[in-house]
Fold each of these.
Amino acid sequence: MNDHDCNPEPFACWHEGTFLPHRGFAGLAPPYSNLQQAKTVILPVPYDSTSEWRSGSRHGPQAIIDASQYLELYDLELDREIYKVGICTLPQVEPLLSSPQDMIDRVYQVIKGLIQKERFVVLLGGEHSLSLGAVRAFKETFPGLSVLQLDAHADLRDEYLGTKYSQACVMRRIFELCPISQVGVRSLSREEKQFLTQNKLTPLYMSDLASNTASLDQIVDSLSEDVYITIDVDVLDPSIMPAVGTPEPDGMSWRQVLDIIESVALHKHVVGFDLMEFCPGEGPGSCAFLLAKLAYKLIGCTVPQEGR
């Protein structure tokens, strides 16, 4: 069928409300979902080329967006209808399978354009390697940028499975661009431990959080004024987030993650954030809803509303 074959007359009896709207984050309708007016954009990137164990994070972005349809738009803790800042959901970025580096470059180009339009970017992955593209873009606009990483793994290998752009290498590549602060780590290789020692990096391990030897002030003080937050969702305890590619015992609670984010947002300028490595096929539907709510709350903590 071509355009000339599409006669609008048969559709004249179908009124507004006949068809379901485009499934954007939180089911928002215009004007709150319009790119022209929205302060925030959701960027879904369904890519997981370098996953070494359980793949499926390419399905994560859409699962989070689907679950977000059931969010309560009023947030009790923030006493705020967060959606009023405007949240536009962009189409999924088409994966490039030529190499991880090419895909990282594509994410960089897309986010660079969104930053130029002065939008707050929420990247939904997809594998963690994509965060490098986001950080590259934000670093150009915010030269003093630092990165807060919430993650079960250090991701500091120089190379893994034949590439320097694996998800297992992402923080090594980011550290080459700007300072990093790692929180919640509970698994790393000897090579990564040696790299931490040589570079005088001191992650706040999960054991530090569990024993209360780490404080919110420590985390805030480790960061520069402009901060990008990258969250590998395996930082969460697998009892509430089993749907990840590389699960680790122990982990952070919902409240611990929120307390960190809220404290950093209160004292620093958060320029953007991501949620990565969610594999919806590895857990119940509640995992997707948890991450939809986490994304919504992070928007509420970091994107100012008119008149507030």
Amino acid sequence: MSGDLHCHTKLSDGTLGIEEIVALAAKRGVETIAITDHDCLAGTVRAKIIGDRNGVKVVPGVELSAVDTRTGKEVHILAYLFDSPDSIEGLCHRNTQARKRASQLMMIKAAKRYPVSTELILKCSTGSTNLFPQHIMHALMQCGYTNTIYGDVYNNLFDKNSPDSIYIQPKFADVFEVIESVKNAGGISVLAHPALYDNFDILEELVQAGLNGVEVWHPSCSKEQESSLLSFAKKNKLLTTGGSDFHGMYNCDVVSIGDYVTPKQQLTELLNYKTKVKRQQKKLAAMAAENEA
């Protein structure tokens, strides 16, 4: 039993609803998935119920946006199996508000650059808890300015290095604060797609801060990077996960649920991780009590 532990629904920047995600997973023979919408826990309970009805195990998850405030580099943390979702809700709300402020400004800039109405852009984001660049691009597609979400128009508007870029970086929470929040919520923190944002340089510090794992199997990761991450994980006793980072029509590449997965052994380790940690803590406590006696 392997699992795709990185899937997005239309609650964030995907194009499929929870029911459609679960149905697609079942049809493709993927027995375990995680819904990891950006800074959004809204679908967690519903996804589990729908998954149970369709024979698909849904692992509670969320992709938390963060930034290394020292460098300004974006870092995303996948959080799984948290005991106290309320402890993460505040962080999600802050990130959501930061994204909304930045996205609204980008939407206005896009509407000035192209004769597209903000109403149409907002219509393209219907069902989402926020506004993402993909929604702006979807509106531009509908108006005939491009025939693809990603390509020259997207790069011109949202590549930070483009001279005509309208991209505005949301003021997300500091990554070390995010890891601490996941820990306080009784969750498991995993560094998402380190190759996508080139987060290799900060890995050691994240581990020291309490990071529990790293996403190895992902569309953005080369075989050489996979090998390097597996070696690093083994050395630092980290969990390793994988997922397709599925967004439906908003995928960067042609990919579907189950194309990238967490292998059976690694999935079992993740699901049993908290029980293992608690067992070790009890053992250490018992040894400490014996020594005091």
